[in-house]
């Protein structure tokens, strides 16, 4: 009989805890590929950089809300339908770092060759065609790596799609 108030307190505390742990429904933007069973996920509050169909510029903003009923995102206080997105920027690749490394190497080669020629006072050494060729080749290949293989983009189409899913249970 003396433990009865503690039991009621415990039950009321557990009920309060159960009511407080109810969370809002969680919605997820999935990047699905037909050939893969795994998909990348983006959540509300994450930043998204994308390009709309017919546009030549990239838009960027935080996902404020996901609407699975109409398959739309709320970004920068406006609705963006998933069907109108042409591509989504997913970051840089290793080729970007390699390209910048090659450009830096080429520029460094040219600078050190020119400084060596200017400071060694030896008339037989000069900034040669070979030095310019190494610089031009390195900078050119680095620039091509950045432009061609530098970014990862997700383009929805026949075998890829963007989809908003409500995963609450």
Descriptive overview:
The protein has 169 residues and is of the alpha+beta class. It folds into two domains: 77 residues, no CATH class; 56 residues. It is built from three helices and nine strands, in the order H-E-E-E-E-E-E-E-H-H-E-E. The longest helix is centred in the middle third of the chain and has 26 residues. It is elongated. The model has no long low-confidence stretch (mean pLDDT 87).
Write the layout of secondary structure elements.
Elements: H1 4-20, E1 27-33, E2 40-43, E3 47-52, E4 59-67, E5 72-75, E6 78-81, E7 85-92, H2 94-119, H3 129-149, E8 151-154, E9 160-166
Mean pLDDT: 87
- Strand residues, percent: 25-35%
Assembly level: single chain
Strands side by side in the biggest sheet: 6-5-4-3-7-8
Task: Round the Cα radius of gyration to an integer and report it.
Answer: 28 Å
How many strands, what sense, and barrel or not for the largest sheet?
Answer: 6 strands, antiparallel
Write a concise keyword list for the protein shown above:
about 170 residues, alpha+beta, 2 domains, six-stranded antiparallel beta sheet, three-stranded antiparallel beta sheet, elongated
Short overview:
The protein is α+β, with helices and mostly antiparallel strands. The chain is 38% helix and 31% strand. The model has no long low-confidence stretch (mean pLDDT 87).
């Amino acid at each position: 009989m003396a433990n009865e108030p503690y039991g009621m307190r415990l039950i009321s505390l557990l009920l309060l805890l159960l009511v407080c742990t109810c969370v809002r429904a969680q919605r997820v933007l999935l990047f699905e590929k037909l050939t893969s069973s795994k998909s990348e996920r983006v959540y509300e509050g994450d930043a998204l950089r994308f390009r709309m169909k017919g546009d030549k510029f990239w838009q960027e903003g935080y996902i404020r809300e996901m609407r699975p009923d109409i398959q739309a995102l709320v970004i920068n206080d406006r609705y963006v339908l998933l069907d109108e997105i042409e591509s989504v920027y997913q970051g840089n690749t290793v080729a970007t770092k390699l390209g910048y490394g090659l450009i830096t190497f080429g520029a460094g080669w040219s600078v050190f060759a020119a400084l060596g020629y200017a400071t060694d006072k030896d008339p037989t050494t000069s900034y040669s065609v070979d030095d310019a060729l190494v610089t031009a080749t390195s900078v050119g290949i680095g620039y091509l790596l950045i432009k061609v293989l530098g970014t990862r983009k997700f383009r929805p189409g026949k075998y890829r799609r963007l989809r908003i899913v409500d995963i609450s249970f």
